[in-house]
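User: Teach me something about this protein's shape.
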Amino acid sequence: MKIRRSVIIGIAILIVGIILFKILGGRKTDHKVNTSFQTINVMTSKIENQDIPVTISLSGKLVARNRIELISEVNGILLSGDYREGASFNDGQTIARIDDSELAASIKSSKSQLLNGIAQILPDLQLDFPSDFPIWQQFHRDISFDAPLPQLPEVRSESLKTFLSARNIYANYYTIRSQETRLAKHRIKAPFSGVLVKADIHPGTLVRAGQPIGTLIQPGTFELEASAGLDDLKYIKTGDQVVMKSNEQDGSWKGTILRINRSIDAATQSVKVYIGVSDPSLREGQYLTASINGVTLKSVSRIPRKLVLQNDEMFFVERDSVLTKKTLNIAYRGAEDVYVKDLANGQSYLNQVVNSAYEGMIVHPIAP
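Assistant: First, the predicted structure itself:
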């Protein structure tokens, strides 16, 4: 009985296996029958060679041509009440005044010592150096506690120079001059008429020596710092005239290329170009686009850069249906287009990006 049961189970398993094999085999056959090759519709355009003038576009941010960072060279409390962002100052006007009362008192004390020293030597000068006595007497009278020291009288006699040195006249004099120089640093004056665009401290704040306290710019005169590609440099030179425009402001402005950097930015492989422009309506930090007229390229075709593949290759359509790769002879690379030489007029090329495209692919061209 056990043997008969095993035989029946084996036969049943065999039958089930044959049925499953037929079912799976039938599905595979059905898949082969339903498979088909279909072409895709693609946009194409035709090559049209012509003479095209190259216009180079450069964009960047305006920076004031005359711009200084204000740094305090002394310690003290900032006393200037009008030291605020946006404040305007004329050439030579005091921008910031730092408390100098302690140093001013010290200078007066030093002047008192100098006056005393000169007063003591005047009798000896009258006896030993009568020709120099009137000069030093007048110098003594000209010294004021509220004005800078007058120029030290010229000494031609070596004996007189030795006499003055022995009585510390020179030492006292130049100590005061040094103090007066330091006193002048308590007043920061504008080297040009400008606007305070940045104030790092407020009136009444303690200022430390070496501390940045603000930024002064001269409005109306700017430089546009832009980056140019290596291909663009062939058509740019110092002194070229450019036209600049802004997306946020109507109008246009004429500028001049002032400088071209000789160093290449390693990250972007571009070169800095500096364009000068003057107009009171412009503002520092404003973005402008400059257009520069280059040369006219002869017999070239304009092609969008997005269509160019690696190694400067592009898909063309041969025999109205087959994609073929060709290497381009690029005469100039613009921001959005490339200008290509040595292409035949009327030749069709793939005018859209197809990620699945490959050489030999069958397509159905659709002209624009």
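Now, about its shape. The two ends are 82 Å apart (CA to CA). Residues 205 and 351 are 65 Å apart (CA to CA). If you'd like, I can walk through any region in more detail.
User: That's plenty for now, thanks!
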